[in-house]
Amino acid sequence: MEFKKCVRCGSFFLSNNVVCPKCLPKDRCDISKLTNYINDNNITNSTITNLSQNTGITLKNINRYINSDVIPKINL
Ligand SMILES: [Zn+2]
User: Distance, CA 20 to ligand 1 centroid (Å)?
Assistant: First the structure.
């Protein structure tokens, strides 16, 4: 385990995750919101800006979810 700085709130924590235990539920919530949005609307093409505007999730977090393959793949 490493001492890390949370990418969401900036607090230090000890874990293998990139977010602290406090932010983990927020991350899960964002991921399911994003996944539902993509699936419910059958989205195959979009932009990160569009996803952010429609879900209220920050560009930074969306980029992170895309890079870590935790949301459905779409053409961006
Ligand atoms: Zn945090």
Answer: 4
